[in-house]
Automatic annotation (TrEMBL):
Highest taxon of the lineage: Bacteria
Lineage: Bacteria, Pseudomonadati, Bacteroidota, Bacteroidia, Marinilabiliales
Protein name as catalogued: Plasmid stabilization system protein ParE
Organism: Breznakibacter xylanolyticus
UniProt keyword list: Toxin-antitoxin system
InterPro entries: RelE/ParE_toxin, RelE/ParE_toxin_dom_sf
Short name of one Pfam family: ParE_toxin
């Protein structure tokens, strides 16, 4: 499967990395590196992740990473990563 990362996800991720970097640039780089590594694991079996708590759709799934929820949609041979949430009611 191909993984497509949406602008909405990139924007929220970059904001969080900048926030972490204020305290520790090294931790921020590691956070981003580890998250991207986890995103690549989605391609092998996207349905292994839990059904999203934010959407009533079996093709939208949540990956939990260090207290954050990464929301992605499965469309045939493409996985679209679009949500990056922490302590919110909606990934928008």
């Amino acid at each position: 499967m191909k993984i497509v990362i949406k602008e909405s996800f990139i924007h929220k991720l970059e904001s969080q990395v900048e926030f972490i970097a204020m305290d520790s640039p090294r931790r921020a780089r590691k956070f981003k590196h580890d998250l991207i590594k986890n995103l690549k694991s989605i391609a092998q079996n996207p349905y292994q992740f839990r059904k999203s708590v934010y959407f009533d759709n079996d093709n939208i799934r949540d990956l939990i990473f260090k207290g954050y929820t990464i929301v992605f949609r499965i469309n045939e041979n493409v996985v679209e990563v679009f949500g990056f949430v922490k302590y919110q009611n909606s990934p928008s």
